[in-house]
Amino acid sequence: MKKFNLSFLVGLTILVSLFMTSCERNEMIEETPTMEETLRFAKEVTITDESGLNSVTLLIESEKDAVLADYDAERYKLLPFFEVPNYRAAGNDVTAILGPQETADIAQISIKSTSFQEGVVSYKLVKKD
Q1: How far apart, in whole angstroms, are the C-alpha atoms of residue 54 and residue 118?
Q2: Distance (Å, rounded) from C-alpha 50 to C-alpha 81?
Q3: Which pLDDT does position 100 carry in this prediction?
Q4: Quick check: 71 and 43 in contact, CB under 8 A?
Q5: How do beta strands 76-81 and 122-127 pair?
Q6: Segment holding 98, helix H or strand E
Q7: DSSP code of 73?
Q8: pLDDT tens, position by position, for the chain (129 residues)?
Q9: Residue 28 to residue 8: CA distance in whole angstroms
């Protein structure tokens, strides 16, 4: 009888502790917001080259509306290339367009569309001085 009671109590203790542990885990799990949920603000910016014949439209999305104000077509220029450029010499770097402080604030920049005249093989977006 003692063995049965002891086994019953040990089994009951294990079940209760498993139940309590599983409840605590569910309470501790927090859902991580998706990219779509965190990027609440967005705008499109179309940057055109000097000829007006070539353009790139960027979709800029951010967690903060104020960050979007820093991105407009007047601050950037589009450089189309009609031959394959030497990227090392051209300084092809993301920070060339964004700047080191702005990259931390921007959540996502993507190319929505491009329109180039015939013969353009590559392009570069740079910040105007």
Answers
A1: 10
A2: 13
A3: 44
A4: yes
A5: antiparallel
A6: helix 94-98
A7: G
A8: 555 566 777 776 777 776 666 554 455 567 776 666 667 888 999 999 999 999 999 998 888 888 888 888 898 899 999 887 665 554 444 444 444 444 456 557 889 999 999 999 888 888 887
A9: 31
CB half-sphere exposure, 13, CA atoms < 13 A? 6
CA atoms within 13 A on the CB side of 98: 19
List the beta strands (DSSP E) in 21-121.
Answer: 41-48, 55-62, 76-81, 108-115
Query: Residue 127 has what pLDDT?
Result: 87
Distances (CA, A) of 83 to 31, 47, 80, 87, 89: 48, 21, 9, 12, 14
Gap between the Cα atoms of 62 and 23, Å rounded: 36
Residues 6+ apart with CB under 8 A from 40: 63, 65
pLDDT of residue 80: 92
